[in-house]
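Final report, section 2: Outcomes. Of the targets proposed, HTH-type transcriptional activator CmpR is the one most frequently requested by collaborating groups, and we therefore present its record in full.
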Amino acid sequence: MRFKLRQMEVFRAVMLTGSMNGAAKLLFVSQPAISRLIAHTELSLGLQLFERDKGKLTPTPEAHRLFQEVGPLFEEALRIDELARDLAKRPEGALTLCSSPSLALNFVPPVIAQYLELYPNVRLKYHTTLLADMAHELLGRKAELAVSVLPIDHPNLVVEPLATGEMVCILPQGHPLASQPAVGLAELANCRLILYSRNIPFGQLVAAAFQRANVSWTAAVDIVRAELACALVRAGAGVAIVDQFSVGQQGWPGVVTRPLRESIPLSLSLVRSRFERPSRQVQRFVRLIKEHARTGPAQVGRPRAAQCILP
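The predicted structure is given below as tokens.
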């Protein structure tokens, strides 16, 4: 192998920092050592990676192309190295989990807290991801398990229904509509609306509901995350429609949650790669989150809790 892992590491560091000196600081080695290794790499590859002009480095087109390939490969090497260190330090292993952003506000955190209490020797890595990126996360092994607020249709994913819920209306405290037990879309259309952008699944759900109700509407503010809607409503910028899992049982201070008269249903799912056998850590987490869904964690939709749809 002419392009060795250490050479990739140094080349990547130079590309990231833009200089030999910056790469030396990043890798905690001397600047001459970086320069020598880059020169040796260019010689062994028979490829000029950088133009040098009065101490300034300019990557060649070939260097940019190579960097596109080195980046993901090196990140995977780092992931394997981190896994090896985890296996040595934590015999129980690790669990990498992702979820839709709105589920990170109220739904998933209690399950994570319970999991860590029961299995303190497991290292849990958790991040949020958009629905459009979830398949890439799972099939690229960046996550072992995903919790999605909407179903995913992908031939290489195993999708297991978890629970159902609904979209709800949120209003600032003292708003005239807050005195009603439920709010209609026609009433909301007369208010300043804060809605999900129509180019994301939540926005498409809400738009379809307005169309079914034959109600014309115009959004004053487009958002992509539920916490932005909650913060804007609390500040008095308008009213919003969000999923019930984002507001949870406690809600937001200064924000009132009301069910919609026109139902906009949701279906939570557990998602994993079809090519990976679920680890013991995944199986444990799945048991806990199913129980969490069964006991009805967050619920403000119609006068009922979100319904678990698992046996």
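The longest strand covers residues 157-172.
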